[in-house]
């Protein structure tokens, strides 16, 4: 049973210009997507840069204005005015960002950064607050010495852990994680992802996990939507998406994941080329969601990047 439903969400950014700075056009960032969140489940949102992933996350949490659609949280329509500061929605839905550094106030000590949501929502006594901060630092695997330090004194992975400690401080229901590891070294990425999985299980957290990397999402998510130009071109369980992708764009994204397992690599490559050639034979042209035509014969069959190059006039 889902605790939150997003229905037909649209977010358009106005483009202003002219002498009076009036709205002259708009960017369609999110164009009618629907998704729902279940307790303890991770929902992945994947797509290339600019397809609208971050705007989706930011509009759900209330950092961007929603043009149309609705957000129903625990049976209540919170689209317009129930997501503000101090609301239970504001406490229960938290976000962690790609750039942990700029999401942490450089002038505040770690203890005050983590205490921020606690002071807003839990109203603990000073002793209880101290205990909660120590507890949170222990959960994210950091020493109590960290409390008096400033963000710049930590590595990227540690900063992300501080951001996570702040996000889980008030026992949220959903964490929106926007490319939480893409700025980190590969070895640290695995640590942070595994740690996020651990706390998901421990606290029954739900995630909206945003990434351009299908490999990362495969590791983390139960349900995945593939986003292209503001819309979902395909949604399904992890199993569906990885073993039986339907949309050619999903196939292209999958073929861009480095195939690191040498056993059977040649067979997989042959199979992929065959699948794509069959698709090309049956569909001379591929039409995207906006009706734009791609001539499949002119596209590289093994790399989805070709599609974006084509769009930019590169092919
Ligand atoms: N504040 C803004 N004003 C105008 N247009 C914007 C704004 N923010 C984003 N956009 C545009 O909206 C579209 C979606 O952007 P968004 O950042 O959501 O994509 P994304 O998939 O998260 O990309 P990335 O992975 O690069 O962050 C893009 O065309 C982008 O240029």
TrEMBL record:
The record's GO molecular-function terms, alphabetically, read: ATP binding; ATP hydrolysis activity
Does the entry feature the keyword Ligase, yes or no? Answer: no
Q: Keyword Thylakoid, does the record have it?
A: no
Domain annotation ABC transporter: ranges:
4-254
UniProt GO BP: peptide transport; transmembrane transport
The record's section on Pfam families has: ABC_tran, oligo_HPY
Q: Which UniProt keywords apply?
A: ATP-binding, Nucleotide-binding, Transport
| Superkingdom of this protein's organism | Bacteria
What family is this protein classified in? Belongs to the ABC transporter superfamily.
Which PANTHER family does the annotation name?
TRANSPORT ATP-BINDING PROTEIN
Task: From the Swiss-Prot or TrEMBL record, give the protein name.
Answer: ABC transporter ATP-binding protein
What organism is recorded for this protein? Psychrobacillus lasiicapitis
* Top-level taxonomy: Bacteria, Bacillati, Bacillota, Bacilli, Bacillales
């Amino acid at each position: 049973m889902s605790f939150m439903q997003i229905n037909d969400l649209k977010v358009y950014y106005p483009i202003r210009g002219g002498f009076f700075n009036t709205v002259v056009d708009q960017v369609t960032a999110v164009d009618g997507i629907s998704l729902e969140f279940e307790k303890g489940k991770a929902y992945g949102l994947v797509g290339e840069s600019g397809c609208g992933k971050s705007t989706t996350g930011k509009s759900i949490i209330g950092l961007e204005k929603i043009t149309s659609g609705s957000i129903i949280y625990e049976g209540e329509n919170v689209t317009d005015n129930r997501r503000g500061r101090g609301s239970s929605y504001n406490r229960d839905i938290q976000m962690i960002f790609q750039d942990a550094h700029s999401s942490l106030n450089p002038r505040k000590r770690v203890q005050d950064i983590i205490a921020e949501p606690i002071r807003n929502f839990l109203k603990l006594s000073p002793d209880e607050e101290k205990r909660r901060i120590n507890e949170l630092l222990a959960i994210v695997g950091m020493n109590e010495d960290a409390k008096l330090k400033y963000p710049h004194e930590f590595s990227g992975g540690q900063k992300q852990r501080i951001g996570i400690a702040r996000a889980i401080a008030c026992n949220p229901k959903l964490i929106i994680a926007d490319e939480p590891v893409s700025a980190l070294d590969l070895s640290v990425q695995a640590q942070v992802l595994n740690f996020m999985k651990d706390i998901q299980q421990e606290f029954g957290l739900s995630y909206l996990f945003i990434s351009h990397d299908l490999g990362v999402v495969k590791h983390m998510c139960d349900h995945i939507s593939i986003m292209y130009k503001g819309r979902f071109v395909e949604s399904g369980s992890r199993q569906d998406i990885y073993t039986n992708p339907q949309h050619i764009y999903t196939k292209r994204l999958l073929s861009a994941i480095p195939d690191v397992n040498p056993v059977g690599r040649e067979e997989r490559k042959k199979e992929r080329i065959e699948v794509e050639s069959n698709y090309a034979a049956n569909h001379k042209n591929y039409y995207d969601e906006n009706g734009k035509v791609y001539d499949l014969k002119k596209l590289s069959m093994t790399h989805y990047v070709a599609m974006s190059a084509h769009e930019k006039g590169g092919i």
